[in-house]
Amino acid sequence: MQSETTFDLWQPYYDAHVIACDEAGEYPFAGYRALQDQIFEIVHAREGASVLDLGCGTGRMAARLSRAGHPVTGLDFSRAMLSEAAVNAPDARFVPGRLAMPLPEELAGETYDCILAAYSIHHLTDEEKWALLRALRAHLAPEGVIVLGDVSFPTRAGLENCREAYGDKWDDEEYYLVRDELEAALPEYDVDCIPISFCADVYILSPAE
Ligand SMILES: C[S@@+](CC[C@H](N)C(=O)[O-])C[C@H]1O[C@@H](n2cnc3c(N)ncnc32)[C@H](O)[C@@H]1O
User: Is the beta carbon of 123 within 6 A of some atom in ligand 1?
Assistant: First the structure.
């Protein structure tokens, strides 16, 4: 797992880096802006939906959603990312903490209409991801959903093809989503997948009946 320090050091360059990578159409951020647009549309279709943004980074999504009238709480373990997020999204609330259960004490007992994780959950191993996603159900309001947007492939073979194509540029410290594995690991959710690019998908997880 990458440390807080890695992200503190990345923060000044983060936004420019991901957009340049998206513009070049390259792994890992090909589709970054379309993915953020898709997440915004999913949330904003729910009028006034409350949002927990896990791994909120520089707060661009928090800023966009809070400007559009959504109460947003952002969680991140990087102090530098959170400082920048507070500047970008002055109306949002930001809480330092890890992507793990239990959530920080300040969030205990809270529920949200939408829990987001954009390009953050791949920093957890698959077991950590599935455990977190299962436990987050307790923080969903009635009719609430979890929205994941991340580097993702339909199958393990698709992931391996991308790994081979990108050679040394492939990041072995990240654990990307694989659609059929996610669906098999989380039977407690109905999973809707929206493809974004050759290496990115958006998932909507709704608690199964
Ligand atoms: C690649 S950035 C994504 C930022 C933003 N969500 C976006 O879409 O651009 C990943 C973010 O997750 C945070 N992060 C990574 N691992 C984390 C962990 N275990 N606990 C809390 N935050 C974490 C990092 O500090 C960073 O801000």
Answer: yes
